[in-house]
Design brief:
6 helices, globular, 3-stranded mixed beta sheet, 20% strand, 8-stranded mixed beta sheet, alpha/beta, single chain
């Protein structure tokens, strides 16, 4: 399924970046750059692919984080965004992050696996829907070994609802977003592996309550029902981030892709950290005044 992305006669190679953490301590304001780093890594790779300075046509980045709420740009337009951010930080000890990719708020912690699949589409263009369908097909191939059938379609009362929500037996376990820079496409997946998913849903529901989302005239924010979401471990024997990572990489390798593990420290992320700092300055200004 990856052969269409070959850019030369050389064997198809995928750069693999693993940023796995077990740290369940939330970020403090003084640690903001650590929370921004995964997004800078993805943008460094996307830009390198687009500028044709990246050595491989494919990359994958695994990055569970310490506890945080990853906000979409739309969340910054909450009627009372200041109160929502302040409540997260002061009452829940959560420093949120505003991401560059689309969508709305999601919860991230060491038991939620964030995956970014980065693709050079110069030789094989992908529509937005085709990119989503590609990663869903990859996930389904992995889950076939577990006898699990994935369902795709919006779960309106989940957090970050979207057309390509991934569910099992009616409960959402994953969501997908995209970011594109020229012919470089980043497909972002969050997969709830284990942990208290109901509490994650309640956290987002309460954040929207604090931000007075119900007063938004355009109705852009979901009325989150924590019961509509679940963990992958509820339906399969996959109960750790490491298991998921290993099994997904095995499927990719079986498809004929050479896996080349790399260190994210080798990437030049400084420019992209600065851009993320500017994107998140609105948060820091709010919290600095508390």
């Amino acid at each position: 399924m990856f052969e269409v992305f070959k850019t030369s006669n050389k064997p198809l190679t995928m750069a693999v970046y693993k940023d796995i953490t077990k740290n369940n301590q939330a970020y403090g304001l003084e640690e903001a750059d650590a929370a921004l780093l995964p997004f800078a890594v993805d943008d460094a790779i996307l830009n390198a692919i687009n500028q044709e300075t990246f050595e491989a046509p494919l990359a994958i980045h695994f990055w569970p984080t310490r506890p945080t709420v990853i906000l979409g740009g739309m969340d910054t337009r909450l009627p009372n965004f200041n109160q929502a951010v302040t409540w997260l930080y002061k009452n829940q000890d959560i420093l949120p992050v505003v991401r560059p990719a689309g969508g709305l708020a999601v919860v991230s912690d060491p038991n939620v696996l964030n995956v970014t699949l980065l693709i050079d589409t110069k030789n094989q263009a992908l529509t937005i829907d085709q990119a989503y369908e590609f990663i869903v097909a990859l996930l389904q191939e992995m889950m076939d070994a577990h006898g699990v059938s994935l369902e795709v379609g919006e779960v309106a009362t989940s957090y970050c609802p979207g057309k390509f929500d991934v569910s099992i037996r009616g409960q959402k376990v994953a969501g997908i977003a995209q970011r594109r820079i020229g012919h470089a496409v980043g497909i972002y997946l969050y997969m709830s592996i284990s942990g208290d998913q109901e509490s994650r849903g309640q956290l987002v529901a309460d954040m929207y309550h604090e931000g007075q989302a119900n007063q938004d005239e355009k109705g852009r924010y979901p009325q989150v029902d924590p019961s509509v979401m679940a963990n992958l471990s509820d339906f399969s024997s996959i109960d750790s981030v490491e298991q998921f990572v290993n099994q997904l990489l095995a499927v990719i390798a079986h498809a004929g892709v050479n896996l080349n593990e790399r260190k994210q420290s080798e990437l030049d992320t400084a420019t992209y950290i600065e851009r993320m700092q500017k994107r998140n300055q609105v948060l820091y200004d709010i919290l600095a005044n508390q």
